Amino acid sequence: MHIGNLRTALFAYLFAKSQNGKFILRIEDTDQGRYVEGAVDVIYETLRTAGLIHDEGPDIGGEYGPYVQSERKGIYRKYAEELVAKGEAYYCFCQKGEKESESMEGYDRHCRNLSKEEVEAQLAAGKPYVIRQRIPLDGTTSWNDMVYGEISVENSTLDDQVLLKSDGMPTYNFANVVDDHLMNITHIIRGSEYLSSNPKYLLLYEAFGWEKPQYIHLPIINGKNPDGSISKLSKRHGAVSFQALVEQGYLPEGIVNYIALLGWSPKTDQEIFSMDELIEQFSVAGVHKSPAVFDYQKLGWVDGQHITGMDPEKFQHDALPYAHIDGTFLEPKWTKLATLLQSRITKYSDIPEKIAFLLQMPEYDIDLYIHKKNKSTIETSAVILSRAIECLTALEDWSEESLLASMTDLAGQTGLKLGPLTWPVRIALSGLAATPGGAIDILFLLGKEESLKRLNAGLVLTSKEN
Ligand code: ZN
Which residues, by Cβ under 5 Å, contact ligand 1, an ion? Predict the structure, then answer.
C-alpha cells in the first residue's frame, strides 16, 4: 500500500476515533480491469500491522454489508434507473467511454437528448448501453471543504460521466456515492487529486435529494529530489509502500507516527506519538493545504525515537534477525550488543553497518589517534597502547566490571582520566571515530584474543610513525 493511501486511511481512522465514530473498511473493486491478485490481502495486512482496526468490513461484517462492491452489484442499477426516471441521467448507446480511464476524454453528449421513443427502440433491439449522469450545462457547484474551504466549479467543465457500465457494474465514481449514502458515511477523507471529481459527486447527491457528507481533502505528498526541488513522491525518492518500509526495518508505529505528520500539525511541539495520543490530539483544524514533503531523514529520527522507547526484550527479539550474527562470536553477546544499539539506530537495517567493525577490523587512518580535547597524539597513543596491552594481557576475568576496574587502575597509574586513556584504545579496537559503546564495551564484545590482536596492530602502526 502506497504511503499516500495509508496516510488517507490513517487520517480517516484518527478522525473517526477522535469523534467516537466508526471506521469502516469497504473494498471498491468495480473496475475489474484493474483487479490485482492479492491486493485485498495487502490492504488487510497493512491496516492490521499499522494498527488501523476497522469496526465493520468484509471480514467481520456489520450493519451495512456486504462491504465488497462487486458483491453489491445488484444494488446500483436501481439507483441509476432512478436517476434516469428523474431526468438526471440517460441511456447512452455509443459504446464509448466504457473503460473508466476513458471517461475523462470528453463525451460529445450524443445520446443526451434522445427521445423516449428512440431510447425504447434501442433497448427493445437489445443494444448495449451505459447510463450517464446528466450534468447541468450551466451554473456552478460549490462546497465548503473542511481543509480547502469554499470551492466552486463551473458545471460546464464537467463531463457526463458514466455511472453504470454496459456489464451492469457501476463506475467507482457512482458506486462510492451510492454506498456512502447507504452506509451513512458522514465524512469523506480523500487525497486532493479527487478535488476535481468532487462536483460530480455533489451533483449526484443533489440529483438523488440526499444529504451531502462533509469533505476533507488532504494535501499531496511530495518527495525531495537530489537537486533540492520537490515532485510527487515516487519510487525514485525511496521506498514508498508501507510494506517496503517495514521490510527495511522501520517500526510500524514509527511509520504511522511519521505519516501522521504529513499534512497535519499538532497544537503543541510534540512530534513522537503513540496511536492513542494521535487519536487524542488529531483535529481537522490541524490539516493543511500545502503539499507535505516526505523526508526520509525525519522518518528515521521519528522511528529511532520509537526504537529507543521500546521494551528492551522486544527489541532484542525483533532486531536479532537483522544483525546476521548467527554462529559468530557476537551471537552469545547479543543482549549486551542490543543494549548498545537500541538508542543508536533509526531502523533495524542500520544494524549490520553499525556492527561491521566488530566482525571485521576496518582499515583506518592513523590520524584518528590525534584528538585535541583528549590531548591524544600518535606518540602518546603508542605509549598508552603499550601499557594497555601489558595490563590486559595479565587480566584473567574478561567481564565488563573487571575491564573497567583494570582500565581505571591504569588511568590512575598514568595520571590520565579514563576518557583520554581509552581514546587510543577505542581507535585501535574499532578504527572508527564514533562507535556504539566505548572502549570497555568493545573490549568486552571482542573478547580477549581479538582485542589484544587489534591493540597490538595499533601499537605497531603508531610506533612505526615515531
Ligand atoms: Zn451516447
Answer: 92, 94, 110-111
